[in-house]
Structures are given as C-alpha cells and as structure tokens.
Design a protein that fits this description.
about 0% strand, mainly alpha, Serine Threonine Protein Phosphatase 5, Tetratricopeptide repeat, 12 helices
Length: about 200
C-alpha cells in the first residue's frame, strides 16, 4: 500500500532516483514542488547548475505557472552563461508575479550583461519600486546609468545607496569614480575617503 513519504527524506533523493520514489509512494504534487524548489536552490548555491535546471523543469512540468521554478531556472541558466534562456525564464517569472522585486533585479543584471542598458535600467527601476530601501538595487541602477552615460542620474542613485548603506565601501568607491570622471575632484576625494573608512571599519 502506498503511503505518505516525508519531505525531509524526499529531499535526500531529489537528484538521484526520485522518479522511482514517486511511483512507489503517494506523493502530493505540491510537496514534490517544494522539494524541487529547495534542492534547486541548494544546487545553484553549490554551482551545480545542470542539476538545478533538471529540478526546475520537473517542477514546471507539474505546474506551468510555478513562479519560483521559473525564477530558479533563470538563475541556473545565468550560472551557465546561457543569457537568452535565462532572460526568457525570468521574463516568464515576472509575468506570473509582476510584483516580485528580486526577479526584476536579476533580470536587470542579465540585461546589463548583454549591454541592453535601457532595458536593464527599466528592470532595476521596477525592482526599486517594490523595494525602495534596497541599497544594492540602487547601486546596480547607478552602475547601469553610468555605463549608459547618464552620470547625473548615476550619482543620484549611488548617493541614495550610500545613504542607505554607508558601511559598504564599494558604494562610496564607485561614486568617487563617477565624480572623478566628471571633474568633481573634491567630491571624488571625499567619496574615496569614506570608502577607505568603511573598509577599515569592516576589517
């Protein structure tokens, strides 16, 4: 007789012979999806992207509208530098859950990596709209704006980032580089000093 199989046991075998376990035990699809999500995240964190892709695809097979599976699939594709596939997966995730900031942030990173700066900036701005206190989002936006040549707006975005996270040295440093490039040397020196102070405080 089939019986419920503990999720903690399933997770141990998610990448080995789970297909056989599925037929041997009464496993709810929602429980399976949770296992796939957990194991896909673990695989991504360990750099085992191919395994993560397989797990995400299994979850999507059970539920085509599985936002987390599409998101994790995009991250796994990013790890393999399959940018087109990653963008498609993250765009699918954003359509399924248009209010999730981390999807737009990751999508922005990808678009910036492919030199699609306008699209990257739009994506970063969407992420910031939903989580305006994320200094890392503002930092990413500032870099993209700087690469595009919109230095004034880049300075505005990075200035907000350092206000929110004054202890992060790279935020001050990047701001200093932009000031220096714009001939604002006094502000550049001040930003570099704050970068050094933040680095020393962290050490």
């Amino acid at each position: 007789m089939k019986e419920k199989f503990g999720l903690h046991i399933l997770s141990l075998y998610a990448n080995k012979f789970l297909d056989k376990l599925e037929s041997a035990f009464q496993i709810d699809s929602a429980d399976l999806i949770k296992v796939y999500h957990k194991e896909a995240r673990n695989c991504v964190n360990r750099g085992r992207y191919d395994e993560a892709i397989v797990l995400c695809q299994k979850a999507i097979k059970l539920d085509q509208n599985d936002v987390e599976a599409h998101y994790q699939l995009g991250i796994a594709y990013m790890g393999k530098h399959l940018d087109e596939e990653a963008i498609n997966s993250l765009q699918k995730a954003s359509k399924l859950d248009p209010g999730r900031a981390d999807i737009y942030y990751r999508l922005g990173v990808l678009l910036e990596r492919t030199d699609s700066f306008d699209s990257a900036i739009t994506s970063y701005k969407k992420a910031i709209k939903f989580e305006p206190e994320r200094a890392d989002f503002l930092y990413a936006l500032g870099i993209a704006l700087d690469k595009k040549g919109d230095h004034k707006k880049a300075i505005e975005s990075l200035s907000k980032a350092v206000e929110l996270a004054p202890d992060v040295d790279k935020y001050h440093y990047r701001l200093g580089l932009i000031y220096d490039g714009q001939g604002q040397h006094d502000k550049a020196v001040e930003a570099f000093k704050k970068a050094v102070e933040a680095e020393e405080a962290e050490a």
